[in-house]
Amino acid sequence: MLQRSAEGLVAFGSFRLDRRTGELCRVDGERFSPVPLGRRALDVLGALIDGDGRLVTKQEIMDAAWPNLTVEDSNLTVQISGLRRALDGGAEPSCIQTVPGRGYRFALPVSAVTDEAAPQVASIGANCANTDAGERGVGPGGRRALLWGGGAFAAVVAGGAIARFGSPLWRSHASPARMSAAVLPFAVEGDDPLLARFAEAVTETLIADLPNPWSLGYFSPSLIPPRNIMLAAAARSSDPRVFGTTLNVRYVLSGVVRGNGGTVQANAEVTVAETGVLIWSRQYEDAREAALDDPTIMARWIRPDAVFAMIWDEAARSLRERPHGMDELDLMLQAKAWEKKMPDLERFERARFFYERVLELNPRAANALGALAEILLGQRHFTDVPAGGYRAIERLIERGEAVEPDAPDVMMGRALLLFATERWAEAAAAYERLLAQYPIANGPESMIAHCYERLGRAEESEVLLKRALRKLPRNSWFWKGFADCSLCMMLQGRFQEAIDWSLRSLAIDPETTGRPLARLHLTIASAQALLGHLEEAHRSTVEAARAWPYVTVRGFWTGTFGSDRFAQQISRILDGLRLAGLRDHAPEDEDFGIAPDSGLSAGEFGKTPLTIAGARTIGTAELTALHAKGPVSVIDVSAPGRSIPGATGLAGAGSGGTFQDNLQPRVETVVARLTSGDKTARVVAMGWNPEHQASANLARRLVAANYTRVLWYRGGQESWQAAGNPVENILPSDW
Question: Could you tell me the domains of the chain?
Fold first, then answer.
């Protein structure tokens, strides 16, 4: 990508982009500050630039950034939001203009820059940094050739040696260690004593939190000087470079606090002490009363952003200094740098690569074991469950628990696995243990809240969700916290509040699209209907269908029920959707005019044909009769969720691709186990409904495996449930 128009250096606004390397810099006079972006974001930016000021449709951008892949529209929204933060810094109007329902337009003029006019850059390590710039902040996205070349990685692993930490790193005779950092007390503008106490509390919280294994201390608590030594150094100089050099640390976190009417602002920044180069800065703002009431909140907004900036800079530095001799810490830095980027499949693949390299060097690296489990669980949103299924992921976690059961990533991996397999009570307990061990963590409260909802404890969930919103740093996913609160209000029957929370979510991120947007409109529709506002509710269902055309009443909640109370609460929401005029389910025999195709379909959802070559389409009545006669092998690709009693849940088994891909033999192995290897045995392929292409794909894969009695239950879970047939919670199988 990024090569369809100008092939070299292009300029727009205060930025320059090298289209040959995909490296973006902000230009300030003679200073060139790198702007770390992932490959997807760069591809999206390239598509917008190629538009030459015209409207670029969403499909054009998707084709450029995700060629030959089918992904949710929300992936594009995430990348657009990230680009806006990088290019605009939150200012309005944005240089990326939204044309509602159609696409985007890049508003800045773009011009080519001759190589003679470009700054001189180092051949390996500079990512838009001048050769004399020293420690410029560089994200791993600027090193794609090094990061993703097989030969280079072989050299990295072969030349690696495990780092050992020695004497306290702030002593004068030791050189600054990787990830060593100190906090310079935050300054205060003006003479407000309340703000002075606030700044002091923010500083104290950051000093206390940085050595915590949940944050920077993850690498080694000895990398952070003791509090008294930091404060003594700060008394001698408030210059970050002098302060950091005195303490012999690599990074200095500093800031300024000011009052602004009814709000409190904190400008925080991270400086490389050796060079004085600023690698990160951001402004945070909170209501004055709330901020002064609990200063730790703003400190805990600042801390993760600052730590991530250090990780990204340190990862780039290790690539420059040790591209062919990375040790365990270097590889962990690379993995964490990729893990903390905006989620997409490439991010997961690269982080996974580095964690696996860490484990080659040190099979007992507990946090790498837990983090690899988290990555594999995250990948399931973009591709099928990895080979070995959830049991393989659990074995990684068990290995980590045997070494260091309280390691942050080990505890997170265990909790996330329990949540992914919908073991709600166990997951809640695991997240509660995690939060007790690491109270500074952002996120466990919302996960516990989700578990409580499934267990019928929505009132307790509400408290945790609101606490999580208060703690959560403002980012592109902040809208989801409001959406979660909206559902919680619906479960409690507080319908007007549910509408208000949904509208707040939409206002925070008007770029929300696809299924997430449809779900917000459906929540509003149900609440409006249950309040008696049927005309408004009907309009909301129309908006939901416009955002995602596959919406149905039964599709609003497809997961398991952790309690009878939760089942009753969801049933009330579904009643509201029926009152709003939403279709109950997709009819199993509806003809969409799709011609039969023996090839695999891309994408999980989409309208299906009536028949599949080599398989026989069956309806609910026939499957009900077969099920009543005795056991029949039913494979449901939409599990976990409620399904036919005795069904086998194989989430991901209906993915697209080819019949020669790695998924095909895995499917065949599971089916051979279910049928005892009998190719003439009846096998039923099913999914959610006739608009769920995954079930059709599974049937095609079974035919390709030479099963002669493949039955495709096109109606899926929706039709089975609509007929009043019995269901049970089906958890995903290991495969």
Answer: 9-119 (1.10.10.10), 134-343+354-362 (no CATH), 442-584 (1.25.40.10), 615-730 (3.40.250.10)
